[in-house]
Design goal:
The chain is mainly alpha-helical. It has one domain: Skp domain (Protein Binding, DinI Protein, Chain A, 2-Layer Sandwich), CATH 3.30.910.20. It is built from 5 helices and 2 strands, in the order αβαααβα. The chain has a two-stranded parallel ribbon with strand order 1-2. The longest helix has 41 residues. It is elongated and about 65 Å long. The termini are far apart. About 11% of the residues have low confidence.
Length: 143
Amino acid sequence: MLRLFTAFLVLLFSVSAVMAEEKIVYIDIQKVVTSSKAGLSAQAELESQAKKFKEEIEKKQKSGESPSQVQAFAEEKQKELIKKRQEIAEKFMKTLQKAITEFSKSKGYKLVLDKNSLLYGKPELDVTDEFLKYFDEKYSVIK
């Protein structure tokens, strides 16, 4: 019985040691999106496009076109803006995924989680600021 208990303790400690060696961290993706140079650049591009479309719509209104024509034009521009937003978001997320993979491999991380998907994570496992610095150095603009 003592041998069985000793074997159990050895197994328990070796499993704990293996778990400690596994590098599991988390990143606040929302913070990266809103604070990174690439995220801010993407947001600025969208805002610029929206401003341009708004000016075009106002120009149509002032030119004396019928309200229904202006409405149809505004709806068309709204669809264009939505499409542009989706394109930018898709490019950004692909680049972000690539950067997370590169960053994780360089640091030897086995698992990287999104902070917003966690119920709890020790603060020392949060590598958001370190990743944000890495991401800004490598990807200041999404192409």
